[in-house]
Amino acid sequence: MLSLPSVRDAAVLAGMHAQLIVVSANADRGLPTGVRQWIEQSLEGRLPRSAALAALLHSERGIPLAESPVRAVLEAVARRRSIDFLGNSWLEMDSTQPAVAAFTSLSDQASILAENVLPRSPRPVRWGINE
Predict the structure, then answer these.
(1) Which residue range forms the structural domain that includes residue 83?
(2) Residue 118, number of CB atoms within 10 A of its CB
(3) Considering the chain, what is the average pLDDT of its residues?
(4) What pLDDT digit, counting tens, does each position of 24-76 carry?
(5) At what angle do helices 33-43 and 69-80 cross, to 10 degrees?
(6) For the chain, what is the total number of helices (H) and then of strands (E)?
(7) How much helix, strand and coil, in percent to the nearest 5, is found in the chain?
(8) What's this model's pTM, rounded to 2 decimal places?
(9) Is residue 83 part of a domain?
(10) Is residue 27 part of a domain?
């Protein structure tokens, strides 16, 4: 899909405004060129530490995710762009990284908001198109 100019342009624009870019990929294969270009273009001109790049990887062959070529590419992009890299495992995340601290704070705020809003939502008397 990223080969279509309109889709690629929309994806780059969204990526430019994102605080977190998440890439989910097969760890056994290389990162497609279009995805790599999208990430690079999305992060152009970013201030250091203004975003984070996260990798959600899975290996069908069982290779250690730390040895994945996809992870190596994503980690190199994050380092080159001076943004935080968040690996597959929460255990890898360093809570002193600005992005980790910021996202933890945001998730705490969202949880509090959800607790305040969700219990008060009235249940519908009926639902479904046949009622």
Answers:
(1) 5-93
(2) 8
(3) 77
(4) 888 888 888 888 999 999 999 888 888 899 888 888 888 888 888 999 999 99
(5) 20
(6) 4, 3
(7) 50, 15, 35
(8) 0.65
(9) yes
(10) yes
**Which residue shows structure tokens 């990798």?**
55
Residue 125 lies in a domain: no
Contact call for residues 11 and 38 (beta carbons, < 8 A)? yes
CB atoms within 10 A of CB 109: 10
pLDDT at 81: 92
Indicate the residue type of 47. L
Give the angle 106-85-21 at the CA atoms, nearest 5°.
Answer: 60
101, part of any domain: no
Following DSSP, what letter does each residue of 69-118 receive, concatenated? HHHHHHHHHHHHTT-EEE-S-GGG--TTSHHHHHHHHHHHHHHHHHHHHG
Residue 5 corresponds to which tokens in the numbers above? 């100019």
- 59-83 burial: b if 16+ Cβ within 10 Å, else e: beeeeebeebebbebbbebbeebeb
